[in-house]
Amino acid sequence: MGSEPRTLCDVFAAAAACGKPNLLLSKVDGAWRPISAADFGFTVRALSLGLNGLGIQPGDRVAILSENRPEWAMADYAILCAGAWSVPVYPTLPAAQIAPLLADCGARAVFVSNLEQLGKILTVRAQLPGLDHVILIEGHPPPEPGFATFHEVVERGRPTLEMSPGVFEQRAARVGPDDVATIIYTSGTTGEPKGAMLTHANFVSNVLGGCEVIPFTADAIALSFLPLSHVFERMLDYSYMHKTATIAYAESIDKLAANFLEVNPTCFAAVPRVYEKVYAKITAKADSGGALKKRLFDWAVSVGRRRVPYLERGEPLPSGLAGRARIADALVLKKIRGALGNRFRFAVSGGAPLSRDLAEFFVGAGVMIYEGYGLTETSPVICVNGPGRMRLGTVGRPIAGVEVRIAEDGEILTRGPHIMKGYFHKPEATAEAIDREGWFHTGDIGELRDGFLSITDRKKDLIVLAGGKKAAPQPIENELKKSPFVALPIVVGDRQKFLAALIVPNFERLRQWAEEGRLRVDWSALDAHPDVRKLFQAEIDAYNADRPHHEQIRAFALLPSDLTVEDGSITPTLKVKRRILESRYGALIEQMYAAAQRSHVA
Hints:
Layout: H1 8-16, E1 24-28, E2 31-35, H2 37-53, E3 61-65, H3 70-81, E4 85-89, H4 95-105, E5 109-112, H5 115-124, E6 133-136, E7 147-149, H6 150-163, H7 166-173, E8 180-185, E9 195-199, H8 200-213, E10 221-224, H9 231-242, E11 246-249, H10 256-263, E12 267-270, H11 272-287, H12 291-313, H13 319-338, E13 346-349, H14 356-364, E14 369-374, E15 381-384, E16 397-398, E17 403-406, E18 411-415, E19 422-423, H15 427-433, E20 440-449, E21 452-458, E22 463-464, E23 470-471, H16 473-480, E24 486-492, E25 499-505, H17 507-516, H18 530-544, E26 553-558, H19 578-584, H20 586-598
Parallel strand pairs: 1-11, 3-4, 3-5, 5-6, 6-7, 10-11, 10-12, 12-13, 13-14, 25-26
Antiparallel strand pairs: 1-2, 8-9, 9-19, 14-15, 15-16, 17-18, 18-20, 20-21, 22-23, 24-25
């Protein structure tokens, strides 16, 4: 493969030259179609020169508003090789939230995936006088100046590429490691979005350090379904490209189950919410199979869990456990793995903490999940677990070149080649995040043991009760999620006498329970149903049984629907926006506390 890359342009050049017939895969007209390394290379080069032809200069900002697809990666590399900065925007965002991002970064051009995304840009274009070009990937744009199709921009660059092939290489070679590659707006569970400027060196150091730990290989097929607008999937796609693995772009989260079976991937990455949903489906199926099947399932899972310490240390199982594990595997565990296809090797988890309980369930069943940790501002990986260096319940050890230390107040600090250049046009916010010695303040609380980092909570999320006791909501929420009926708990209680919880139920499981009991439930007034409340009270009581007084949940309310990105209650990476929920459900929270006080629960 030659020397190590210094910029993302080098990563592109090596991948384009690898000769692979199926570097990318995507579904077109109902069939999975390969794109060869040569075709990928040609398109990116022509597109990059086409952008130059539109007047895009080094340092200009070009946005990408699109779902995951080959053209996303092609646009990204074309922008980067032109020396411009790519600015990814979540396709789930409404127009009103997109306009401030494009205005803040001063985008000169934007790639949009389809007519729906184009519609968003058309409604806000008057607010964006600096936006000269709108490039549509699929469909026909309005026949007026400033609009073009992806294909037209490729065709604009083709003559230069064919007549002067060296022009592209000269431009790409001028891009240096310390040049900014991208502005990524933090989805921000608090406050206004800030644009983190990440350089080519930031990403390349992360790719090289990450690939030392996670065993990506050239023969792998990686399924890409987390949004590429999120730094986690973006860095992984750069890693796949660096290793020349095949990247298959899922059609959508809705079609993920079908795409999984069709692609039969070797590896993929997901956020904990995805693993939680898979776990809920598996256990619901086991519960509906009758008492004997349920006992067998529980026994097999417990055998799997007993394997975990040996797997972590890379040691052989004692003979008795090995025998039981073979039986558990043959009867139950291989079916869990089978759901992921026969090529599956491992998955990566990031974006939020994965509960130890959930990790043990999957790893015990032979589904290897390597959990990592990082932030947009750290491009993103700080730590990650991997083969031979793994400890469940932690986010692993720091990758090469990355320093981590714990401040006196418990905050995780990190320093190294992965730290962003700063927030775009926000020197005060940059100075607040990165101290004079170069340490980035993550805002997370954690601890280091034997080099392994554990995250305990967000600094801003710590709840201080009226009596002065502090409670960390995330570990409590992870415990509550162990109930098959609880999909998403939000623990509240700042300055109150005790903790309470807003609960999004597992609606699928709850409906099944209601049908079995022949109960009539008004789903819009779920919280008022006495039998449903009794069920959840029993689940809360089970949690409270062995908890210290200040960590017990003394009141709860059931929310009638799931949280969505569209309603602003969760970020595009499925993190809960606590402050927004606390103000939206302020009246409900007050009622909940008042009712609990009246019944002397506290």
